[in-house]
Design a protein that fits this description.
Number of strands: 7
Number of helices: 12
Low-confidence stretches: none
Strand order of the largest sheet: 4-3-5
Helix content: 40-55%
Radius of gyration: 20 Å
Strand content: 5-15%
Number of domains: 2
Oligomer: single chain
Distance between the termini: 36 Å
CATH class of the largest domain: Alpha Beta
Length: 285
Amino acid sequence: MVNKRVLIGYPNPDPLIISQMPDRDTLPLQFFYNVTRSSAWEVVVLEDSPVQSLTDLEGELVGVGALTWGNIPITRAMFADVGLTVGESVELQPVGTGAPAFRALSTGQVAALNLFDVQHALLEASGTSIRRIPLEARFADLFSNGFIAHVDTVRDQAPLLEAFGRAVARGTVACEAAPENCVLSFWESYPAQRPTEGDADENLARGVTVMRSRFDKFLTFPEGQPRRFGEYPVEGWSNFVDALYEGGQITTRDIDVSPLFTNALVDGFNDFDVEAAREAGRTFR
């Protein structure tokens, strides 16, 4: 993205914040659409595991997708918050995603998985009973993945990014109105993902459950306030800085987050007929 070979990305904000440290090279990237409005990252254990909290993972291996994944700084911060140090009192073990990760948990290779919501929902859909370990609200409420572009793209191609974000917002409203049709639309676009065995209605119900594991986080708006798709809460960035600082991932709270995001395109994202989008979702065939 820095070299402009990719137009739009969908990362976590942690690496961009860390790049603002005085001894780092600032990345010329900017978030322009807040997609996942609360954290997509979870810590799960098998249903019959004795682990009830993060502190119970002392001395254990915790499976992560990879040590390069964007959630790792916050994972380190979460453990530091309960007095555990990654690399000393708890270890992170790369396990990938899908079957290898699920096997690592089910066979006891790791005591817990720290993957994202959809992966855990897929594990449940495969018949494995798991529990989600409670996380402190200041971590669970952090927004996660969003759309990001090069600062030059935000400056020079704002109408394109605005149209892209508006399409995402309309699609979100349509899927909210008719989640089953949303899953069917996904399978139409990606037929290899459609289950080929089992009862069709049960497959569709499982598909909706998996979809909702992430989709509901697109809709975590402040209660009593208008829904502004794509908008970033300014205080959310400060909360991220605090979490990373307290977790030892950055050495100062004095980080200017204002260049890291923009809400300049939000009005355009939300400039569409909401009821028409709902009707499009309900009448999809």
